[in-house]
Amino acid sequence: MKLLAVITFIFIFFYEESLYGQNEPPKLVCITVNPDGSNLLRWLPPTNTTGLQKYLIYYSSALTGPFVPLAEIDNALLSTWLHTDANANNAPRRYYMIAEYELANSNSSDTLASIWMQVDNTNLTEASIRWNPPRRPVPFGSSETYEVYRALSDGMWSFRGTTTDTAFLDPVIICNDSVNYQVTLSNSNECQSVSSITGRRFRDITYPDKPLLDSVSVDINGNIQLGWTPSQAGDTYGYIIYRFENNTWQEIDTVFEQQASSYLDIEVNACSFSPQYAIAAFDSCENKSPGTFLTPQRTMLASVSAYNSCERSNLLIWTAYENPSQAIDSYRIWVSSTGDDFILLDAVSPASLTYTHENLIVGTTYHYKIQAIMGDASSSTCVFSSFTADYNKPAFINLRNVSVTETGAVELLIDADTEASIQTLVADRTTQLPQINPVTITWESENQSPVIRTDMEASTSDSSYYYSLAITDSCGFLREGEGLHRTILLTGQGTGDQETGISWNAYEGWVVEKYNVYRRLSGESTFSPIAELSATELTYTDNIAAVDGGDGIFNYRVEAVSANERVNNNQLSSWSNTISLLIESGLTMPNAFRPGGVNNSFGPVYRFTGYEEYSLLIFNRWGKMIFESNEVTKGWDGTYLGVTVPSGVYAYLLSYRNQFGETIRKQGTVSVVY
Known about the structure:
Mean pLDDT: 91
Oligomer: single chain
Structural class: mainly beta
Low-confidence stretches: 1-21
Number of helices: 1
Radius of gyration: 68 Å
């Protein structure tokens, strides 16, 4: 009996095991996580559904279990079920299924997990995404490739890429927004596993690369042209232009183009003002790159510092180009005489900020611009100009007259153009023609005309002089004047004590109308005219017999009067030197006199005084000196010691120094008669 029971148990056990092994479980193929966190499970029913009564769903919220019964599905025809309380947005949920048959349950299906997304936004410009697989290997019929999707705050999903891994890096180029991610895993059984939706907030904190400002230049119209190398950042949206004004950086404009590389500032007069400029890039999120404020650039100012009309040259000056992006190779000087079609005049080193343009053509307007060469960049100044006017040359330089003063100097009357600048007046003096090795006299000029200049070195008592005139103009060039004039040299001599004779050379330089002869005696302060002669008469004899000549010194001057030349309506005249003729008195001694008579004293008879060291001595016949006088006007009255001397012959001795400095001695006898 016992044996029968055991055999029966064994039979039933193996029978049931055989039945159980023949019942297939459903195949879990997809789990979709809905936005509310519920999980929609999809499965494939068993191939043989005979005797299938229900599906049993088991669930675990942990990786290692335990699994607990979750649901019984009585309809064997269903292939989906919604786990509403799955809360699958917080963690993966794991499931397996068993099919319950009339005789026995199937084995459990493969365990399948919902896909739970995790997003890391530590780097605010890149999303690091990771998720768990539904199972390994992937569920029955599933693809090996995950598809990644992203949605911004507008809720529009966009495809971001595929991966066979369970991690994905997604660049996030947005300004400031929430970003959600979801992955799907396609299945050939007309379903797909869909992950939970997980997001983070991202913002763009990366500013574009700083652009390289390479030049600030002036165009042909005087506008300022900025040039730069565009930012290489892909999200660059445009550029901000700054100009330094009122001690601060002002945003003057914005350029909305990533590849823009230039800007034209038409608000500044670049010919008189040199503003500083800087630039910054910005992206679509208005993140600004660092500006170029520490290395601002500005236009160069240039001008003609000085036009030298004498040397016909322009001195150009300019300011250095500041903070060039590349080292300055040279400064190029461009020139044009028309304002266009500039040609390269020269190039100078970066250390040079001046240039002299020489050999200019008078009456031409020269246009210039300076260009700084900096590798493949350059900067030009505004066009500046200069007119090459000729300097003011004297229109006339005339020597009008020469005349000898009473002191023997020569006065030159000069007439020059006062509208022009004259540095010096230059006269050449010679005693003969042609003027060989002349003596040159130089005077500083005055801005007046006519003007008199005096030659103090001429020896006018010995020579007659020819004078010619020149000037040095404002440029230092010597310019010959007009007029060659000759002074008058007067000479003369006495022809006894009755007359004098004088002669002179003709005045040369203008036509002489007449000559006037002047004389001055000792004791007189001025010369008096004594004769008027024709222009051809160059000698004169002065009869002085009736002239009280005083000390015998006769002074003469001759005046030449111009026939045509006038200054201020007065005829020009030229004076000769002054000569002094010393006429010896013609002194005589009487041979007799009567004391107390008509000639009651004895002494020399003379016409002119002026004797020096005078001495008259009287001796008797025994040689005794009985009279002495040292005054020419005091003679001997014929007495000795107050007593009249007897008649007879007496000896005298006379000595004196005449006007010429000669000592004269005379001796003889005189008779005293009664």
